[in-house]
Design goal:
Length: 149
């Protein structure tokens, strides 16, 4: 029950995106930094974004994708303007793209759950299995000894 309460909306969106994703090669038109974010436990950081263009459904599409995350002071450039990168885009909304291409298919964590929620789910299923085995195999209540009278 705890696992279902803790299930994040974004994991559902990610699974839905992967189910409807197509892959394309995109060309970087420009690179820019996002606004700084302050972490209460460390230095401020920012993300680096690329404006890209690619072909989807026989038309040229422009989108912005994240190419660097949690950069502090400077992002080491992994890409330059004009580079080609492989992106995934949603076939229902072709201007919605992500980089890098998410790994699809089933894995250890197919729903993309938070590790703590995944642990709670595994613990809950394990406890349920033990309870069912206990019901099936049965247990005898302790017997009161009459020898001590």
């Amino acid at each position: 029950m705890l696992a279902f309460l803790g299930h994040r909306f974004e994991s559902h969106q990610r699974s839905d995106f992967i189910a409807h994703a197509a892959i394309a090669d995109a060309v970087i038109d420009s690179l820019h930094d996002g606004p700084p974010s302050q972490d209460i436990y460390g230095p401020s950081w920012f993300n680096e974004y690329a404006t890209v263009h690619y072909e989807a459904d026989t038309r040229l599409v422009h989108s912005t994708v994240t190419v660097g995350t949690k950069c502090t002071s400077v992002c080491l450039p992994a890409h330059n303007v004009g580079d080609s990168i492989r992106i995934a885009y949603d076939t229902r909304n072709v201007s919605s793209a992500v980089y890098p291409v998410p790994k699809g298919g089933l894995g250890v964590n197919p729903l993309g759950w938070n590790p703590l929620v995944l642990f709670a789910a595994v613990a809950g299923v394990g406890s349920l299995a033990v309870a069912i085995l206990n019901l099936i195999l049965g247990s005898e209540p302790p017997r009161i000894s009459r020898r001590g009278r």
